[in-house]
Structures are given as structure tokens and as C-alpha cells.
Amino acid sequence: MNDRAALDLLVSQGPLTRTQIGELTGLSKPTASQLLARLEAAGLVRTTGNVTGRPGPNAQLYEVNPVAAHVAALAVDQEGITAAVADITGRVLGEARVGTDAVDEEAPHRTARLVAKAVDGALAKAGLGRERLHGAVIGTPGALDPETGALRYAPHLPGWHSRRLKEELAEVLGTPVVMENDVNLAAVAEQHDGAAQDFDDFVLVWVDEGVGAAIVLGGQLLRGATGGAGEIGYMPLPDAPLSRGGDRSAARPDAGGGFQRLVGSPSVVALAQEYGAPEVRTVAEALERDAVREEVARRLATGLAAVVAVVDPRLVVLSGEVAQAGGEELRVLVEEEFTGLALPRPELRISDIGGNPILIGALRTALAGARDAVFTTA
């Protein structure tokens, strides 16, 4: 327990002296010295210089040994896979992206080969081989069945629905693999590094080409009985065509009905074109128009009111392409529309994560797993 406490301190606070570790853990100097000797012998910590400018002998600084473990994080979308490799401190050493055309459509085990190609690209940039990996976390659209691990509600990702896919990925990468819903991972990133820090009860609403939510209550992700909690893109709302039966098998994420057909990226662009701007091709261009921004805010507020009435979170974070393009102007409009729609009125924020929140969340999750494994068994 003392060893783990010291390692966690070194991860969160960076290099520390023996005295500082003793003070922060409440351990005596001899005990702290013995602890550091054990961790150094196990290859988990190393010295990294001295503290100078103080009276008396210079004190050695200790840090977590970066090479103690490495992890891979991946974010999957319709166009391809982005992979990042980091050491146990969280420092990203290499990143790569492969398109869906990187492996022939008819190739056997195509999905596993695409994942391996993305990871190998990131490992090559990091100067590492697959044998150095201690785990991988993959973020994908759609819900994952908690019993089988199979991907559900993601028909636009062909090849990702095999019940053996997780095992195939572990075999090809040579390391344990965790598959997780992409919006859930974005929420992990938001809670650790973004707008939801210090919140144990919040909802992250992802408004992009696809629409979904991650619900965090008491600091824990709510997954639901079948893994489908947060699939609000299918939520029936006024003015939205209903998603029935075969609609879910449509090839495009904007197909079908419900909330997604009101606020997803393709619908926002289509709305601008309907409002007399046929030249608009991007969400950012569409949301520059006041009338479009106001209508999207109205639609967002209507959908959020349904979620808030059931969950009653302290905070709602808007993320994804539509939220980022609309920015603070869109947030204010949604907040104004929200007045009177729902009795609970949580704080509303726009995500402030820099970079890909799904990849960052996958990295956070992979690091937590690797640290648990390495720090516990050393």
C-alpha cells in the first residue's frame, strides 16, 4: 500500500525527494528510503537529478520510470483509425492514422489488421515494438454488449460486430484489449482534463456526425442493462422522423430518426441549405448564420430537456463538431431555450478539451489499467 501510494504521488505530482514522499505519505525517513530502494530495484522509479540551492547536501529527486509500461489508445470512426502510444507517465511517444482503405475490403480479419496497422504506425514513431505494449483501449461508436463484448448500434462500422473481435485484436497486438464506447471515453477525458473536472454527476452530450451521451452519476459511468445507456441519437422527439425496425441498420449514421436527425452534423448543414444557403458545406459555415444557430439551439434544448428531466445532473457538457463550431454563442442560446423546458437546470458548458477527446479518454483508461497491473504486481 505504501509503495502504491508513493507511485501514485510520483505520477500525479512529478519528481519528488525522499523527504517530500515521506511528508506526503506520512512515512518515516527510513521507511521512505526502503520503499524507494524497492521501487528502484523493481524498475518502477529512477533518480532524475538533485534539488539544489538549499542548505545541506543536495537531495535526490525520484520519478516514475517511463519505460515501466507502454500503452496504446485508439479512436475509430467511419474514415479510419487513429492510434497513439504513450509511456506509463502519459507522455505520448507516437501517433498514426490509417484510413479504411489501408487494408483490402476482402482481406481476412480485415478489422484486426487495420487496428494492427494503426498501432504499428504509432509504435514505429515511438521507436518501439508490439512486445513493449502492456494494454490497449479502443474507442468505437455504438454500444458494447456488457455480456458478449460485441458492438451494437453501429451498422456504419462494417467488420466491427464479430463476437470474437476483442480476442482477435488481443492476439494480433499481443496485449490485453479493452473496447469502449467513444462518447464514454470522451467523458473520461472531460472529467480528468476538461470542463467536468470536480464533477461526479454530469452528462456529456456528443453532437457530431453521430449523436450520443455519456452519463456519469456518483463518479461512475452508467452503461445500462444492454450497454445502450446514452444512445440518445435514437430518442424520439417532435419534428424528428421516428427510428423504427430497419432504420437502425442504415449505412449512414445520420439515417433513421430521432434526435440525431435534428442536430447531427449532416442535419445542421442540410438546415442551412433549406434556409437558402445551398453553398454551405460545413457545420462551421452553417452555424455562422443566426437563423440556423437559433434553430439548432432550440432543437438541442428540447433533446437535453428530456435527458435532464430523467437524470438531473449538475452539469451538461456539449462536445463534438456541432458544439465546437457553435461555441459560446450556441451555448448561450441553448441555455436561453432551456429556460422553462425542464425543472432541473444544470450548468451548461462547451467542452474545452484540446485534441481528440476520444483518443485522450482512451489513453487515460489504458494508463489506469496499466498502472494497476504494473504497480500492483511489481
UniProtKB/TrEMBL annotation:
InterPro entries: ArsR-like_HTH (IPR011991), ATPase_NBD (IPR043129), HTH_MarR-typ (IPR000835), ROK (IPR000600), WH-like_DNA-bd_sf (IPR036388), WH_DNA-bd_sf (IPR036390)
Segments forming domain HTH marR-type: 6-50
Molecular function GO labels: DNA-binding transcription factor activity
Entry-linked Pfam families: MarR_2, ROK
Superkingdom: Bacteria
Family, as annotated: Belongs to the ROK (NagC/XylR) family.
Protein name: ROK family transcriptional regulator
